[in-house]
Amino acid sequence: MCGRTAVSLGADRIRRACVYRDNEGRRRHPEWKNADRYSPSYNKSPQSNSPVLLSRKHFEKDVSSSERILVAMRWGLIPSWFKEDDPSKMQYNTSNCRSDSMMEKLSYKGPLLKGQRCVVLADGYYEWQQQNGQKQPYFIYFPQPPEEMFSKPDVKDDDTESESRRLLTMAGIFDCWKPLYGGEALYSYTIITVDAAKGVSSIHHRMPAILDGDEAIRKWLDFAEVPTQEALKLIHPTENLAFHPVSTIVNNSRNNTPECINPIELDLKKDVKVSASSKMMLNWLKNKSPKKEDDGDNDGLPRWSSQFIQAGPPKRTSKSLMDQWLKKEDGEPSAKQSRKQ
To answer: How far is CA 51 from CA 26, 32, 98, 205, 214, in A?
Structure first.
C-alpha cells in the first residue's frame, strides 16, 4: 500500500525534474495548470494536494496526447458520480486501489476506460514494517545520483540539480467531481498498488505500481495512442528501488521536516526479558568471576549495571554468595530470615 509520501521540491523544480521528449523528439518541460494549489512537504498524507502528471489532451482537445501537464490534485479519488455536496463525506478509502480488483469497481473502472490515467510524483513513499509488535518506518525511492540529496533546500535557480533528481513515478487513476449546486471542479486521484517486489517485501506485502523509465510513463499517459488493456501491462512490481529506515517522527503527519526522510541506524539488539534475580546473577558473573571477564558478549544477553548488586557484609566469599542466590531461587529462607522465625 502507499499511505504517506514526501515531495520536497518546489513547483518550478518539479516542472524541471519532469523533463521529457515529445513524439517529435523535442525536449520539453510540462507546464503547471494550478501551481498555486501545490506546496512541498516531507510528509504528505491522503486528502492533501500532490503533483500529478497527465496528458494535456484531457484539458485541451486540439493538442497531441503526448504533451504533458502538471496538476495539483487531491489524494483520495472522489468519483464523478458521488452525490454528496462535500467530498469529505466519502465513506470509504480511495487513496489506493488494488490492481487485481480495480476493473471490478465502478470508482476505478469508469475513469480507466475513459483513459484517465496519471502519474503521481514524489521523492519517495513511506512504509511501516512490523517489528516485535512495533512499527518501524522506511523511506522508499528510486536510486539517486551520488551528488543528489533529498534534504537539500529548494533552490529556484539550480536547473542542473533539479533535472538530476529522479522523482518516484507511481501509476494512478484520476477523476473529476463537480459539486451538485455549482462550484469549482475537484480533481482527485488514487495510487494503484500491486504485490510487493522481492526487494521490499520484507517491509510490507504491498507496494505502489511504479513506472520505471520515460517509455513506461509515455505509454501510461498517452491514452489516445495506448488502449487500456495495453497500458495495464505496465502495472507490475518494480525491483529498482532503494530504501532506508527513518525516524518515527514521520508517524505524525503534522511533522514536516527533513528529519522525516533522513536515514537512521537501527538498534538490532533483541530485547531479552530476564527476571530480577537473574539480573543479579548476571552481574555477579560479570563482576566477580575472573573466568567470565574474557568471554565478551558471546551469550548474546544484555549486560546490566552494578546498581542491582547491593554491598554485603565484609569478607563474604564467592561460595557464600552463590549458596545464598541458589537458596533464594529454590524458595528457601536465608540465614537472616531463619533467625527471625
So the answer is: 23, 9, 21, 26, 17
The chain-wide mean pLDDT, for the chain, equals: 81
- Provide CATH 3.90.1680.10 ranges for the chain: 5-260
The cell numbers describing 280, all together, are: 543479579
CATH 3.40.50.300 for domain 5-260, yes or no, is no
Instruction: Kindly give the pairing relationship between strand 206-208 and strand 124-131.
Output: unpaired
Strands of 36-105 (E only): list them: 41-44, 49-55, 68-75, 96-98
d(CA 341, CA 336): 9
Q: Are 152 and 160 in contact (CB under 8 A)?
A: no
Q: What's the rounded Cα separation, in Å, for the pair 123 and 140?
A: 9
Predicted confidence (pLDDT) per residue in 168-182, tens digit: 999 999 999 999 888
What percent of the chain is predicted at pLDDT more than 90? 63
Q: What are the grid coordinates assigned to 176, written together?
A: 473529476
DSSP per-residue string spanning 308-323: GS----TT--HHHHHH
Q: Which pLDDT value is given to residue 149?
A: 53
> Which is the catalytic residue, given 97, 118, 127, 161?
127
From 2, 18, 97, 260, the catalytic residue: 2
| Cα–Cα distance measured from residue 28 to residue 102, given in angstroms and rounded to the nearest whole number | 32
Cα–Cα distance for residue pair 234/240, rounded to 1 Å: 15
Separation of alpha carbons 157 and 98, rounded Å: 40
Tell how far CA 46 is from the center of its chain. 13
Report whether 211 contacts 241 (CB < 8 A).
no
Based on the residue annotation, tell me whether 127 is a catalytic residue of this protein: yes
Give me the phi and psi of 25, to 5 degrees please: 80, 5
- pLDDT tens, position by position, 246-295: 999 999 999 999 999 999 998 764 443 434 543 454 454 445 444 433 44
Q: What is the torsional sign of CA 124, 126, 127, 129?
A: positive
Task: Tell me the three state secondary structure of residue 221.
Answer: helix
